[in-house]
Amino acid sequence: MNLMGALPLWAEILTAVFVVLGAAFAAIGSFGLIRLPTFFRRIHAPTLGATLGVWCMTIATIVYFSVQGFNLFLHAVLIALFVALTAPVTTIFLMRAALFRHRKSGDKAEAPDRPT
Length: 116
Prior knowledge:
Helix 1 packs antiparallel against helix 3 and helix 3 (44-69) packs antiparallel against helix 4. The chain has four helices and no strands. The chain has helices spanning 9-35, 39-42, 44-69, 76-104. It has one domain (10-104). By secondary structure, the chain is mainly alpha-helical.
């Protein structure tokens, strides 16, 4: 017997809106890799896009499975928390490595693209 039925229209719309928003945030963030001129500027857009995209997908997952299962589904929050905690740490490591390589190349600047 299949207990999984069709979702109410409001839940389908809400889920679809958050899925599309999550995909849009991730896509917009990835455009920063192409459009921004230096590595130090390019690194922020994908991090923010990934984090916002994951949170939107998490909300869509919570809505879908909470309505489908008739109880609050918060397991997906663990994935979002993991991404929210690891994405900035990864960004910091990448920035520090790039700054180290920049300094090692002989440039005396403290950090590229820093306003003077």
